[in-house]
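Worked Example 4.2. Consider the chain below.
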Amino acid sequence: MRRTALLFLSLLISVATAQLADGDIRGFVLDLAEGIGIRAAGTAGERAAADYLEQRFREFGYQTELQPFPFTYFQDLGSAYQVGQGPEVNASTLGFSPPAELSAPLVFANLGRIQDLRGREVQGRIVLLRRGEIPFLEKAQNAARAGAVAIMVFNNRPGGFDGTYGQPGPLPGLALSRSEGEDLLDRLQAGEVLQATLSINTTLEERTSQNVIARWPTGTAHLVVGGHYDSVAQGPGANDNASGTAVVLALAQAFAGTPVAEQTIFVAFGAEEEGLLGSQAFVSALPGGEPGDITAMIDIDQIAVGNTLFVGGTPSLVNLTREVFGNHEGMQYLTELRAASDHVPFQNAGIPVLVLNRQSDPNNHTALDTVIEPGTLSLAAELVAAVLRELAGEGNTVEL
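Applying the procedure from the previous section yields the following C-alpha cells:
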C-alpha cells in the first residue's frame, strides 16, 4: 500500500515538474509585469495583481485569503530647489516628505544632531545637513524642534541618493548630491547669505494593500514560502519582484495535492517596497504575534538578473540547503544576509529564514526592469523545492 502511495505521489510530482521549467515560470512573470504592469502598493495595478494571484492559487486547488492592511501611501511627483537668482535644480525628495512651496534663508548644521543644532540660528530657516550618523527622520525631528521649516541633506559620497523618512515626516526634505551640497556649504562658509526656494510636490494619503495567502484544504501548515508582488511606481518590476512571485506560484502548482502543499503556506506579500509592510502584517496577525507553529520561512526576492544566486539566512537552514541541493555554478551560500526583504519580520519573530536573492541589477527600480535572464527562475524553483521536500519530511522519496 505504501509503495502504491509513493508511486502515485511520484506521478503527481512528475506531472508537475514541467511547471518548474524556466519558460513556464516566465509565463507568470509576463502576466504580472507585462499583462498588469506597474503594481505599486495601494494602486489599482497592485489590486489587479492580487486578484490574478488569488485566481491562480484557486485554480491549483488552494484555499485563499486576501489579508488587507492600511498604510500611508507616498508618491513623489517631482521636486526642485533654487538658491538666490540661480537656476532651478531638480532634486530627489526624501520619502514621506510633506509637500511644500516655501522660501527661507539657508543655514548649515552639520549632521543634524541635537548638539549640531544647539546655538545656531535655525528658527524659520531651511537647514542644510550632511548625510550620515543618524537617520533622516531623526535629522528632521531635531530640526523641527529647533524651529526649522525644511531640511536639505547632501550625500556623504559622490553622486546623489534616494532617502526616506520611513514614515510621514515632520518637515519637507530634499536629497542633494555631494557636489551640490558642498557647493552650498562653501558659499555659506565664505559668508554668503543664501535664500533657498523649495518646490516639493508629493502625495501622502491613507491607502490599503493586501497579502494573498494560499493554503491547501487539508493538512497542517508549518512552512511559509513567499515573495512580494508589488513593484515600485517607476517600472513593471519583472525582476523585482515578479520573478520571486512567479516562483512561489510555480511551486504551489507543482506541489498541489502533495504532503508538501499540506504543510506549506504560500504567500504573495503586498507593499514590500513601502517598508516590508505586507510581511509585517502577516507576522503581526499570527496568534499573539508570535511564531506559533511556523518552523521556517523562505523568501524569494529578485532572483532573475545577476551572475550569482545568493542563498543566506539562518545557519541551520543554509546548511540544510547546501546538504540537500549542493553547490551549483552561479550560486553562493552566505553566512550573513545582505538584503532587507520580507524575511526580516519573520526573523525578528524568531522564525528560521532562508533568502534567495540576486544583486547588481542595473535596471532595478526603473522602467527598464523587464529583463529575465535564462535559467534563473528554474534554478531558484528547484532549490526551494528540494528544501521544502526535506522540511516536509519527504526526503528523497519524491524527485522533481
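The longest strand covers residues 63-83. The radius of gyration is 24 Å. Compare this with Example 4.1 before moving on.
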